[in-house]
Amino acid sequence: MATGSDFDLVIVGGGIGGVICLKYAKDAGLKTLVLERRERIGGLWRDLPSWQDIQFRK
Ligand SMILES: Cc1cc2nc3c(=O)[nH]c(=O)nc-3n(C[C@H](O)[C@H](O)[C@H](O)COP(=O)(O)OP(=O)(O)OC[C@H]3O[C@@H](n4cnc5c(N)ncnc54)[C@H](O)[C@@H]3O)c2cc1C
Description:
With 58 residues, the chain is α+β, with helices and mostly antiparallel strands. Helices cover 28% and strands 14% of the residues. It has one domain (4-47).
């Protein structure tokens, strides 16, 4: 079993914030672990109703 010392970075939460942190960590070559308490990633964005548009800023 992996331990915390096997990683450069541990991210708690697999919401959009955690996923973006993971992208930058991987780009930087860091060995990274994401801990997500639920059975899937996406956080709040996974739970938005289908009628809810997601708006992005450039
Ligand atoms: C109705 C609604 C509409 C929105 N519309 C927009 C929009 O149009 N554009 C926009 O930019 N934003 C929008 N937002 C806001 C956006 O959804 C949030 O800012 C964004 O989801 C926050 O991402 P996050 O990763 O920080 O948190 P979250 O999405 O909340 O993810 C946190 C994750 O961490 C996990 N977690 C929590 N505690 C632990 C723990 N102890 N151990 C392990 N895992 C844990 C949770 O299970 C979850 O998966 C909207 C929000 C709502 C409610």
